Amino acid sequence: MKFYSTRNKEEFVTFKEAIFRGLAPDGGLYMPEIMPDMKSLIDLFTPETTFNEIAASITEQLLSEELDSAACKRICDRAFTFTPELTDLKNGISILELYHGPSCAFKDFGASFLASCMEEFLSNESREATILTATSGDTGSAVARAFYGKKNINVVILYPSGRVSPLQEKQLTTLGGNIRALEVKGAFDDCQRMVKEAFLDKEMSEKLKLTSANSISLGRLIPQSFYYIWAWAQMKGNRENLTFCVPSGNFGNLTAGIMANQWGMGNTSFIAATNINDVVPEYIKSGTFNPRASKLTLSNAMDVGNPSNFERMLDIFNDSHDKMSELLKEEVVTDSETKKTIKKLLDEKDYEADPHTAVGYLAAERRLKDTNGPIVSLSTAHPGKFTEVYEEATGKKPALPEQLKAVLNLEKKSTIVGNTLDDMKAVLL
C-alpha cells in the first residue's frame, strides 16, 4: 500500500514517509492509493472479537508491505491499553463511548496509534522529530499524553487562548518535559493555518524536522476506523441497516468512518452532526462549500469553519456531491438545544453526556424515524472535561474519572504567541 496527496495523484509515498511528513509538500492530505476490499475479513468479526484483534488485523491488511504481523500486533497492543464501550439506550440509539483512554477523548485512539507507529519506526534510528499540532480542545491533550516521554520526539501544541475548557487547558499545558504548549491569540482556524504554513516553510520544516499529529495525519486517521468496525461487529444481526451519527468539527472522525465503509463495513449511512459551524451540512444540502470564520460554541472541539478533512471527503467521493449526499445525512444543533439534550439524557436515561455527545445524540434522535435500523452515536469526550457546561445544563457536576482528577492541581505552563507564522517562528527558532 502506497499513499498519495489529495493534490497530486501521480506521486506515491510509504506509510512511514506519510506519517513523518504529516502534510504533503504540496499542502494536500495523504490518502491510500486504493480502497482495499476487506469485506471478507470484516464479515468474520463477531461481538467476541476484541478491539485489539480488529485493530491489528486491519493494520496488517493496510500496511503489510512495511510492517509484519508481529509489528502490527506490537503497535496496537502498545497503543490500545483502553477500548471503546457501547451503551444501549433502549430507544434505537446506542452510544459508542470513545473516552476511556488517558485523556478521556476519542482522539486518544488516533494519537496513541500514531505515537506507537513512530516509536516503532524510530526504534532503530538516531534522528529526532518535532510534532507540531493545532487543537480546538481534545487533540492537544490526547497528543500530549500519547507522546509524553517518547524518545527522540518533541511536541509543540498550538491552542486558541480562552477557547478551550479549563480542564482541557490543564491537560495540554501541565506535562512539561518534551511537551510545549503555545497559547495563540486567535481562533482554532488561526492555529490550524499556522501549522499548515509551518509545514510549507522550508526553514522551520527542516530545522525542527516537523511532523504532525493533527487529524490531518494519516497515522491518526487510520486507527479511527477501527472503532467503527468494532461497533459494527458488536451489532451482529442488525448491522446491515446500521447508521453512525458522528459529532463533527474538523471531520477526521467522519472521514475514518467513510473509509471503513469503503473497505467493506456494510453500514447504511452516516449522519454528520455539527453545531452552528455548519459548512459541511450546508454543502450536503446545497452542493456549495462556503468556508468561513468559526463561531464560538459550547461544543468547542467542533468550532471549525474550514474543516481540513473535507478535502479527503471530496477525494473519496471523486468530487461528487450526489455520491456524498447519498451516504451522508446532516443535522445542525444549537447551544440551547445542546444544553436541553444534556439535561434530557440525565433525566430520562440517567446518562451523563458532554456537549459534543449531546449534539450527536439529538441529531440521531431526529433521524431515527428516517432509518430502517439502529443508530450508533459517537460519544467523543467524557462530560468531566466540560464540567462548567454540564453543571449549567443540569445543576449538577459530572463524576470525574481519575485521569481528569489528576491534572486539576497541576501548574499551567504555556507561552502566549500572536496568530501569525512569524510570531511562532520567533518563539520556536
N/C terminus separation? 36 Å
* Corresponding CATH architecture of the domain at 84-104 and 220-405: 3-Layer(aba) Sandwich
**Count of individual helical segments:** 19
Helical percentage: 40-55%
The CATH class name of the domain at 84-104 and 220-405 reads Alpha Beta
Helix-and-strand structural type: alpha/beta
Radius of gyration: 20 Å
* Widest β-sheet, arrangement of strands: 4-5-13-10-11-12
Low-confidence stretches: none
Q: Which helices and strands occur, and which strands form pairs?
A:
Elements (H helix, E strand, L loop, with lengths): L2 E3 L2 E6 L1 H7 L8 E3 L6 H4 L8 H13 L5 H11 L5 E4 L4 E5 L9 H16 L6 E6 L3 H10 L5 E8 L5 H8 L5 E6 L3 H13 L1 H7 L1 E2 L6 H17 L8 E5 L4 H12 L5 E6 L4 H8 L23 H7 L4 H7 E5 L2 H15 L5 H13 L7 E5 L7 H8 L7 H4 L9 E3 L3 H8 L1
Parallel strand pairs: 5-13, 6-7, 6-9, 7-8, 8-14, 10-11, 10-13, 11-12
Antiparallel strand pairs: 1-2, 1-3, 4-5
Helix pairs in contact: 3-4, 3-10, 4-5, 5-6, 5-10, 6-7, 10-11, 11-13, 15-16, 15-17
Structure characteristics:
single chain; alpha/beta; Rossmann fold; six-stranded mixed β-sheet; five-stranded parallel β-sheet; globular
Structural notes for this entry:
By secondary structure, this protein is an alpha/beta fold. The protein has a domain at 84-104 and 220-405: Rossmann fold. It contains 19 helices and 14 strands. The strands form three sheets. The chain has a six-stranded mixed beta sheet, with helices on both faces. A five-stranded parallel beta sheet has the order 9-6-7-8-14, with helices on both faces. The protein has a three-stranded antiparallel beta sheet with strand order 2-1-3. Strand 4 and strand 5 (93-97) form a beta hairpin. The protein is globular.
